[in-house]
Amino acid sequence: MKKLFADPPRTPLVAPSILSADFAHMGRDCRHVMQAGADLLHVDVMDGHFVPNLTMGPDMVRAVRRELPDVFLDVHLMVTDPERFIDPFIAAGADHLTFHVEVVAPARIAEVASRIRAAGAGAGLAINPPTPVEAILPHLAAVDLVLVMSVNPGRSGQAFIPEVLNKTRLISQQLRPQQRLEMDGGLKPENASDVKKAGCDVIVAATAVFGLPSESRAAAIRAFR
Ligand code: DX5
Ligand code: ZN
Q: Is 125 exposed, middle or buried (0-12, 13-18, 19+ CB in 10 A)?
């Protein structure tokens, strides 16, 4: 299993979301943000059901993997039935799969996480802004990473919801040092310091990295850190 973090870990890690890349030049754009200093790539998968939008599937992961054999691919499953997609995404080259706490029965969350890990990837659990933190606290020990959504998932370019920082602090206090806390949605260099202070150590950004002209991306990645 590829490790998300070198030892000692560099924090925060910056994970540009390929949702805002140029889909007609995906390989070129991904290579470019990695050269610009990104640590990993975030892949936003939407099924048109858990969220209204449709984005990409395992074939996109396979294509990016072919272009960038060593990049860490962090797949965010905004789908109603994540179990269906564990094997296809890992076979395509995903290093990590995050599924949502809103779609799996509480009694089965640990089992889904172990299936992901047994198939060779890291497992993450995501929580949407309106979902109470109590929904995720009992499951923290079962996963490698927790993803706190700071917008309602569905599309890039939305405004950051600052109320999620309370939830983030609570979760952060309960994680082990080897577990990671990722935030996703509306993140920009201007709000990154609040996000880091709340305990987040993986920053996802679509608009604020891939959405910029290519010559501005390296400075944006540095500004996040
Ligand atoms: C939200 C996705 C995010 C999103 C981030 O639906 O999970 O990864 O694309 O986009 P920005 O950074 O533009 O808010
Ligand atoms: Zn995401």
A: buried
Centroid of ligand 1 to alpha carbon of 212 (angstroms): 14
By the CB criterion, residues less than 5 angstroms from ion ligand 2 are: 44, 76, 184
DSSP state of 80: S
Bridge partners, residue 100, by sequence: 126
For ligand 1, is residue 130 a contact (CB within 6 Å)?
A: no
| CA-to-CA separations, 108 to 42, 120, 139, 153, in angstroms, rounded | 25, 19, 10, 23
Structural domains in the chain, sorted by start: 13-224 (3.20.20.70)
Token pair, residue 24, equals: 């007609």
Average pLDDT by consecutive 10-residue portion of the chain (225 residues)?
62 96 98 97 98 98 98 98 98 98 98 98 98 98 98 97 98 95 98 97 98 97 96
